[in-house]
Amino acid sequence: MKVSEQWLREWVSPQLSTQGIADQITMAGLEVDAVEPVAQAFTGIVVAEVVEKSQHPDADKLNVCQVEDGSGERVQVVCGAPNVAVGQRIPFAQVGAVLPGDFKIKKAKLRGVESRGMICSASEIGLEEGKSEGILVLPDDAPVGTDIREYLDLDDHTIEVDLTPNRGDCLSVKGMAREVGVLNRLPLTPPKAVEVPAVHDELFEVRVEDFERCPRYIGRLIKNVNVAAETPTWMVERLRRSGVRSIDPVVDVTNYVMLELGQPLHAFDRSNLHGAVIVRLARQGEELVLLDGQTVKLKPTTLVIADENGPLALAGIMGGEHSGVSAETRDIFLEGAYFTPLAVAGQARNYGLHTDASHRFERGVDPELTHAAIERATELLLSICGGQPGPLNEAVSDVHLPAPREVTLRAGRLASALSKQLDAAEVAEILERLGMAVESIEDGWTVKVPSWRFDISIEEDLIEEVARIHGYNKLPVRRPAMRMALKADGESRSPLSRLRRHMVARGYQEAITYSFVAPELQRTLLPDAVSPVLANPISADLSVMRASLFPGLVRALEHNLNRQQTRVRLFESGLVFRGELDSLEQLPMFGALVCGARYPEGWSGGRDKVDFFDLKGDLESLLEVAGDMESWRFEPGSHPALHPGQCARILHCGEEAGWIGTLHPAVKAALGLKADAMLFEVRLDALSQGHIPAFKPLSRFPEVRRDLAFVIDETLPIEALRDVVRGEAGEWLTEVGLFDVYQGKGVTEGHKSVALGLTWQHPSRTLNDEEINQLVDAIVTTAQQRLNAELRA
C-alpha cells in the first residue's frame, strides 16, 4: 500500500517528520517498507505558456517556439515534441536549471537556431519512468511563472506500507489516517460527506441471486457524462503517487475513491447493458473477455456480474472489455458492492489475476462503506465530467451481512499477557480511539467491534490492539521460566536440535523445502500415496501436500546437480501428510540424502562414490544419539522409490518407522538424474525416543570370547541369526559382532558363511569353559532348528 504523505496529512497531521510518521506506523505493527520522494531533485523549472510556434527552417521534426515564463520577456526554445501547440501551459526549464541526473540547461544552437531552455516531458522531470511520448501539458489555469515543484506539490513523499493480510482495513488513505490518528490522539478531518440528489428518477434494475456471497449491491445510473473531460492534475498526481496510472476520468474517479476510502467501484457503459444487472454464479461453458484483453472460461464457483445476455465482469476482480467505459460512452451505471472475503478469496488466482479490487475484497471491505463510496464517486464524477445522477438502487440482505461482534476482554488476562497492569481508563480510551464501543463490566470490558475490523473476533485480538497502541517498547521484558528437573521414569527425548547438530557434524547440510510438491514428482516417487490436493495452490508445481520428505530432497538434489554441485549431503525435518482431509495424518519425519563422492575432494582422499552402507552408517550413528540402538532393526523390503536390491524397512520396537535405500533406477531415469542417490526417512517421534544413560560398574574379571561361523541361506537376514544368539547366549553376553561374510569355494551355492564374535563377561567372577560351552551348544542347536544353519568347520 502506497500513500502520499500530503494526502495523509489532509486527513490527520501529527507534529512529526516524514520519518517520524513512518517509524510510528512500523512500531504499531504496520511495517513501512520504503519512504521515497514523489519526484527526483531538480531546480529552475517553471510553468510557462507557448505563445508562438513555427517550423524549424532546417529540420522537419523540430519546432521553434516562443514561450512566456513569467520573466516579462519571451524566450525562444527549439522543441522536438510532436504534441507541442500554441496556448499550452507547460513545464519549462530555464537556462541554469538542473534536471534530474544533474543535467544542466545551457544556451545552445540546434541546427543553427538559438534555444534558451527546454520544454520538459513528464519523464524529464522525474514524474514517469522510461521515456514519455511528448511534453507534459498542464491545465489551462496553471499560473505562469510558478515553480513547477510548488504547482504540483512535488515536495512530498510516498510511504509504502507492507500490510499483513489481516489488516485490510488499512488499504486506504482513510484506514492509514485512522491508525495515525489513534497513535497521536488526533481527530480525522475527512472530506465533507455529500449526498448527491437525484436529477432523474430512472432506476436500473438490480437482481442479486446469491446474497450469501454478495449481501449488498448498490447501483446508480448517471446520464450524459462527458468521458472526454480531462482528469484534474491533482487527482492524476495522487493516483501516480499511489502507484496507479491515470486512464480516463471515470476510471480515475473509481480508482481514487478506492484509494481514499478502501471501497472498490466499477462503472459500466449503460448502452452495453441488456436488461437487469444480475449478481450470480457463473454457468457451465460461459466465457468472458476481460479488460486486459484475455478471454477466460468461467468456473461454476466464480461469482459474476451479468445481464440478460451473459457475464459482464468477475465480481470483485475485474470488469469485462465489452461493457466497460469507452470514448463513446454517454451514460454510465456506477456500481459498488460488498462481496464476502470467501466469495473472492482465491478466485483471482484461479484465472492468473491479481487486482487492487481482489486484493481488498479478499481481506475484507467494510460492509457499511458502500453508500459513502458511491456518493463520493458521484460527487467527483459530476465535478469533472458533468452528468445527471439518478437515485441509488440497492439490493441488500441484512441476514447475510456480517453480524455485529462483541468480544469480552478480561482485565486479569490482559495484565497476564502484557506482564503489566494498565489503568482501566487507558484501556477503555485505547479501544474507543480504535472505533470500538466499550462497556465496563465487573472483571473487564465488553467491546463492540467496528464493521471495518475483520481481524478482531477473540480476546487475544483485543490484547494485541491494546499492546500495540500502548506501545510494544513500553512493555516489560520477561524471560520464560524453564523447569530443568529430570523425568522420574528415566526416559528422555532427544531434542531435534541435537539430531540436527549431529548431522551437520557428519558433513550434512540442512535443507528446508516446501510442504507442497508437484503432483507428477510425488506420483513418480510414491505412486500409491494419498495426500490433500490444494484448492488454491501457489503454483501448479506446488499443488499437492507432500506424503514423504523424498520429493523435496530429490528436487533439492536436482537443483544442486544442475549447478555443478556433484557432492551433495542433505537432511531435512518436517511434517508429511497422508490421507484425505477427513482422515488426515500429519507425521513429523526426519530424512537425509547423499550423492557423489564419499569424501570431499583432496590429495589424500579417495574418489570412491558413496553407497548404501555409508548412508546406513550415518543413520545408525543418528539412532545412537538417543542411546537406544537395540530397539531398532533393518529388514529387507520393497519401496516404489527405492532400488529393489538396496532397500530396507526401518523398524522401531517392531513397528515400521521409515525406509532407507538407493534411488530406483527407473525413478532416476524418469527424473533425468545422472548420479546415484541414497536416501532415508524416519519418523521423528520414534527417533526422538531414548533413555538417559545410567552408570554400570565395570567388571574386574576377564572376558571370554568364542568365534562361530555359520553357513546359512544367502537370503536369510544376518539379524535373524543375531537374534538367535542373543536369545540363547544368556544374561552375561556383552557383545555380538559380525566380522566376516563369505561366499565361494567351500560354501554350498546359494548359501553364505557368516562369522560372529561372541563376548561374555561376568560382573563378579570368572566364567569357566563348561558354562561357555553349554551356551555355545545351545546357540548352535537352536540356530540349526530355527534357521537350518550349520556350524562351519
TrEMBL record:
It is an enzyme of class 6 (ligase). Mg(2+) binds at residues 455, 461, 464-465. Keywords: Aminoacyl-tRNA synthetase, ATP-binding, Cytoplasm, Ligase, Magnesium, Metal-binding, Nucleotide-binding, Protein biosynthesis, RNA-binding, tRNA-binding. Its EC number is 6.1.1.20. It catalyses: tRNA(Phe) + L-phenylalanine + ATP = L-phenylalanyl-tRNA(Phe) + AMP + diphosphate + H(+). It is found in: Cytoplasm. Residues 39-149 form the TRNA-binding domain. Its cofactor is Mg(2+). Transmembrane segments: none annotated. It comes from Halomonas binhaiensis. One of its GO terms (molecular function) is magnesium ion binding. Gene3D superfamilies: 3.30.56.10, Bira Bifunctional Protein, Domain 2, Ferrodoxin-fold anticodon-binding domain, Nucleic acid-binding proteins, Phenylalanyl-trna Synthetase, Chain B, domain 3. Belongs to the phenylalanyl-tRNA synthetase beta subunit family. Type 1 subfamily. Its main location: cytoplasm. Binds 2 magnesium ions per tetramer. Residues 699-792 form the FDX-ACB domain. GO terms for biological process: phenylalanyl-tRNA aminoacylation. This is Phenylalanine--tRNA ligase beta subunit.
